[in-house]
Amino acid sequence: MNILDTLPEEMFDRITRIACAALDVPIAIVSLQDDDRYWFKSVQGFSVCETSVEESLCQYSMSAPGAFEIPDTALDPRLKGNLFVDGPERIRFYAGVPLNSVEGVRIGTLCVLDRTPRVITEAHRQILRDLAAVAAHELELRRIASTDALTGAWNRRMLEIVAANEFHRAERVKHPFSIAVLDIDHFKRVNDRFGHEAGNDALHGFASTFREVMRAEDWLFRIGGEEFAAILIGCDGNSATEAMDRFRREVANRDFAVSEGRFRMTASGAVIEAANAEGTALGPLAHLLELADKGLYQAKRLGRNRIVKVA
User: Fold this and answer.
1) CATH 3.30.70.270 fits domain 156-309
2) Which CATH architecture group holds 10-145?
């Protein structure tokens, strides 16, 4: 959903404020799970904006069937030595409800905390469940607004957001990432021969092939009519070029069916390393895309159906 490390938003802050008021607690958090941390999209009454997975109390509610509570953290052996229980924050109560995507994937929690032990009522639990559902729905609306309806790929605006977040992540975890620009070759011929519906099928098939062939963590964006961009997490320029060339071969070897018959298509593209192995950005997004576009034109001039690496 690419919401990690984004700015605060009033919609989510309203949810945590309501949670604090309704349950009469000093702390409420919309917490989202990353690979190695829980990041807080909204937080009331707490001095930090993220915690490690190992120290987070939310890790326990992520595996619970519904609302999860720890009435007195000092009595829970799992939390002995926990930074937030035995440290300066002295958290003594926790209750959380998982946030689920529409696919049923747990992506985080809505939780409330207190510095004194307590027990909440079933009415309070229902308030938490309702607010968690509102937060999850708002996340889904954000995702829909960032998606190209025809192909299911992310849109141009999302490319800018994801790239900004990945520059931040690369610097934080010290890993590379690369950007690719792709274009379907002779796309006008598909429309002219089979009609615009076939062209739409071609675009959808191109994006579907990407999702099948590439890793779950790789991002695809539709940035023009038949032009796409991709972000490959953890890949330097060489490995990203190899990955995109495998994808190119898969597209070229695949039959695409339309009502008028079957056809094949090819794609050209260029790959540029956006952050190096130390996580250092190699340029602003606009400049990297400009260089990648020049690489794409080079691939077209060389005969199409190829991926070039931009030095």
Assistant:
1) yes
2) 2-Layer Sandwich (3.30)
Q: Specify the pLDDT at position 30.
A: 97
Domain boundaries, the chain: 10-145, 156-309
Q: Report the pLDDT value the prediction gives residue 185, as an integer from 0 to 100.
A: 94
The single residue of 226, 242, 250, 278 carrying the catalytic annotation is: 226
Parallel, antiparallel, or unpaired for β 93-100 and 50-52?
unpaired
**Cα 235 to Cα 177: distance, rounded to the nearest angstrom:** 5
Q: What strand order describes the sheet that includes 227-233?
A: 219-222, 227-233, 177-184, 267-275, 307-309
Q: Show Cβ contacts of residue 249 under 8 Å, excluding neighbours closer than 6 positions.
A: none
Contact by Cβ (8 Å): 239, 131:
no
Active site residue 226: yes
Question: Tell me: the pLDDT tens digits for 290-301?
Answer: 999 999 999 999
Count CB atoms within 10 A of the CB of residue 69. Answer: 18
Residue 89 Rama label (left phi>0; alpha psi -120 to 50; beta): alpha
Return the structure tokens found at 243.
């990955």
Distance (Å, rounded) from C-alpha 26 to C-alpha 161?
Answer: 32
Residues 6+ positions from 200 with CB-CB distance below 8 Å: 150
CA triplet 105, 109, 111: central angle to 5 degrees?
Answer: 165
Burial of 103 (0-12, 13-18, 19+ CB in 10 A): exposed
In this prediction the pTM is 0.77
Give the C-alpha separation, 262 to 132, whole Å.
46
What digits encode the pLDDT tens for the residues 215-224? 989 999 999 9
